[in-house]
C-alpha cells in the first residue's frame, strides 16, 4: 500500500477547512505514504462545503441517516437525513466539481422498522438485516441519482449491497450522470447467515443480504457493472462490536 485516502470518520469529522488543515498537518508529520482526505458534507455544514473543497480534499462523504446512538460526535457534519438538505448540499458540491460519496439508506424506514421489530421482541442479530431491507437502500440511491441528474453533482454510491442499486447507477450513467458503483468483499463472499453464525461480528451497514442477492452482486461484477470493489475498512475493537 503506497496511498491512503482517509474517510471522514473522526471526532470531529473534517467538515470545515480548519479541521481539514489540522488533519493534513498531523498526517504530514506522522504518515510515510501518500495520503489524501475525504471531507464531511452534512446538514450541519452546508455552508462550509465550498470553502472545504478549497482546502485540499479529494471528495466528500455523506451519510443519509442519523448518527447511531452514542456516536454523535463521530458524525458531526456528516449526516443529512432530510431530503431538502440532501438536495441543497448536492447543489453546493456540484459547484465545486469534487465528487461526493453516499451511504444510501433511508432514515425514516430504518427507524420505523427498528421500532416495529423491538416491539415484537425481535432483537437478535439476524433482525439487523430485517430492519434495513434492500428497499431501504434502493429508495435512497434512486433519489440521490435523480438529484445528481438535476444538480450535476458527481456521485459515488458507496458499499452497494444489492444488484438493483447497481442497475440504477447504470441507468443514471446512460442519462449522462457521473456516477460510480462501489461494492465490498463482504457483500460478495458472505450472506445474512453469517449473522446467525457469528452474531454482531457480522453486523455492517448496509447489512449482509440473502444468498440470492449475493449471487446477483457477483453477476454485476462479472458483467463489469461495478466500478470499484473497496474494502470499506472501518475497524472496531472486540468490545465495541460486542456492544452491538
From TrEMBL:
Q: Which InterPro entries match?
A: DHOase/Allantoinase_Hydrolase, Metal_Hydrolase
What the entry lists under SUPFAM superfamilies is as follows: Metallo-dependent hydrolases
Give the UniProt record's GO annotations in the biological process aspect.
purine nucleobase catabolic process
Q: Which GO terms describe its cellular component?
A: cytoplasm
One GO molecular-function entry: allantoinase activity
Q: Which PANTHER family match?
A: ALLANTOINASE
Task: Output this protein's name.
Answer: Amidohydrolase-related domain-containing protein
Which species is this UniProt entry from? marine sediment metagenome
Top-level taxonomy = unclassified sequences, metagenomes, ecological metagenomes
Amino acid at each position: 500500500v503506497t496511498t491512503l485516502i482517509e474517510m471522514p470518520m473522526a471526532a470531529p469529522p473534517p467538515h470545515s477547512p480548519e479541521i481539514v488543515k489540522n488533519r493534513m498537518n498531523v498526517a504530514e508529520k506522522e504518515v510515510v505514504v501518500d495520503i489524501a482526505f475525504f471531507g464531511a458534507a452534512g446538514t450541519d455544514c452546508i455552508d462550509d462545503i465550498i470553502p472545504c473543497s478549497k482546502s485540499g480534499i479529494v471528495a466528500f462523504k455523506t451519510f443519509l441517516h442519523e448518527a447511531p446512538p452514542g456516536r454523535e460526535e463521530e458524525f458531526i457534519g456528516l449526516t443529512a437525513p432530510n431530503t431538502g438538505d440532501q438536495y441543497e448540499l448536492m447543489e453546493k458540491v456540484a459547484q465545486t466539481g469534487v465528487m461526493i460519496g453516499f451511504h444510501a439508506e433511508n432514515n425514516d424506514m430504518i427507524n420505523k422498522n427498528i421500532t416495529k421489530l423491538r416491539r415484537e421482541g425481535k432483537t437478535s442479530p439476524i433482525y439487523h438485516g430485517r430492519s434495513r431491507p434492500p428497499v431501504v437502500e434502493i429508495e435512497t440511491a434512486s433519489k440521490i441519482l435523480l438529484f445528481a441528474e438535476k444538480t450535476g453533482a458527481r456521485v459515488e454510491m458507496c458499499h452497494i449491497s444489492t444488484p438493483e442499486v447497481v442497475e440504477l447507477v447504470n441507468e443514471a450513467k446512460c442519462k449522462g450522470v457521473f456516477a460510480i458503483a462501489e461494492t465490498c468483499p463482504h457483500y460478495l463472499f458472505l450472506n445474512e447467515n453469517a449473522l446467525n453464525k457469528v452474531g454482531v461480528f457480522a453486523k455492517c451497514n448496509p447489512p449482509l443480504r440473502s444468498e440470492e442477492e449475493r449471487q446477483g452482486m457477483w453477476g454485476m461484477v462479472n458483467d463489469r457493472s461495478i466500478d470499484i470493489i473497496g474494502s470499506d475498512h472501518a475497524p472496531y475493537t472486540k468490545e465495541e462490536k460486542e456492544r452491538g
